[in-house]
Design brief:
Strand content: 5-15%
Number of helices: 13
Radius of gyration: 23 Å
Helix content: 40-55%
Low-confidence stretches: 1-7, 34-38
Largest sheet: 6 strands, parallel
Mean pLDDT: 91
Order of helices and strands: HHHHHEHEHEHEEHEHEHEHEEHEE
Number of strands: 12
Distance between the termini: 80 Å
Length: about 350
């Protein structure tokens, strides 16, 4: 006899956690960690409730995730949008340094900020039995992180954050505030923002910090003054051209959420016959090595890129050891140069 009923969905950590009113990571530590870690995760009564419900619901751990927890390879997987991006390359240097100090090796893959490609690269790394993963390409609107957490895969985020998961980042909201303070104190009252991609927390947080602080200072910045764009020079130039075409509200200053977009914007400003730093102030973000070497040096928010990478490894090692892993926010500083002085 044919049974056309769909197969029953496997019980997950998330199901158990939801039923018990606990966090998935707590349930994972109780079911998958050693005795000492399980004791630190919850009281004996809670631990017994978790185990009893797991037996009752027929929970079976994900075999890939189990191998990550029980058979250490001392190998860490890293996924970034593009290692050709100078910012991410420096962060990866920090990862390699900190991993080597802890007797770990690393390997990196590019996702090109494509979520399907990110998913495929993740499975390749899991098949290589990495002990844990560092994601530098997290999307605020993605589903992969929740799925990996549900499977009990150890991971942390770097460069970008997503609420609910441990991350090592720059305090990007504060960075945006620093730019607003600088431009306001320099006498600018009409500004526009080249905002980057809306799926990346780096873009969202830097814009939010800038706009909020600008309005606190008494400035007006309509939503139309924030133009979302690619993170590269082409994206920055296209966004700046769109801004500069608006004769009804031509700004005296542009804030681009990364240096490459800022460099593209500087090209657009020059093509309009304007002088960067005199007719139009431009400020970037990350303070890459290019910023100070341009013909007109670029003001930029300094992000501690190397330390972000090192912090991501330290955070992941805490996750692997079953310890509390709180997100790390590193402090930015503003480097004022000719482009906005």
């Amino acid at each position: 006899m044919n049974d056309n009923r769909p197969p029953e969905r496997a019980v997950t950590l998330k199901d158990l956690a939801s039923e018990l009113g606990l966090h998935s990571s707590t349930v994972s530590r109780i079911l998958h960690s050693g005795t000492d870690v399980a004791r630190s995760a919850a009281s004996p009564g809670t631990a017994e409730r978790v185990r009893a419900l797991a037996r009752e619901m027929g929970y079976s751990p994900d075999p890939q995730a189990t191998s990550l927890r029980t058979r250490r390879t001392h190998l860490l997987g890293v996924i970034v949008p593009r290692l050709s991006d100078l910012v991410l390359a420096i962060m990866y240097e920090g990862i390699e340094e900190a991993a080597a100090e802890a007797n770990y090796s690393t390997f990196v893959m590019n996702s090109r900020d494509d979520q399907e490609l990110q998913r495929r690269k993740t499975e390749i790394m899991l098949a290589r039995r990495v002990d844990g993963m560092i994601f530098g390409d997290a999307h605020l609107d993605g589903s992969l992180l929740a799925e990996l957490s549900d499977r009990g895969v150890p991971f942390v985020l770097m460069n970008r954050r997503v609420p609910g998961y441990p991350s090592a980042t720059c305090d990007d909201v504060r960075g945006g505030e620093l730019v607003a303070d600088h431009l306001w104190s320099s006498g600018h009252r009409t500004v526009s923002v080249i905002a980057g991609e809306p799926y990346a927390s780096t873009a969202v947080d830097r814009v939010a910090g800038f706009v909020r602080r600008w309005r606190e200072l008494g400035g007006d910045i309509p939503d139309s003054a924030v133009v979302w764009s690619g993170f590269d020079t082409v994206g920055g130039r296209i966004a700046a051209e769109k801004i500069l075409k608006n004769d009804a509200r031509r700004p005296t200053a542009l804030f681009a959420v990364n240096d490459f977009a800022a460099i593209g914007a500087m090209g657009a400003v020059r093509s309009q016959g304007l002088q960067v730093g005199q007719d139009m102030a431009v400020v970037g973000y990350n303070d890459t090595s290019l910023a100070a070497q341009l013909p007109i040096s670029l003001s930029s928010v300094h992000s501690p890129m190397l330390e972000i990478g090192r912090s991501a490894v330290q955070l992941l090692l805490r996750v692997l050891n079953g310890e509390q892993a709180e997100s790390i926010r590193l402090e930015p500083t503003l480097c004022v140069r000719e482009s906005s002085a």
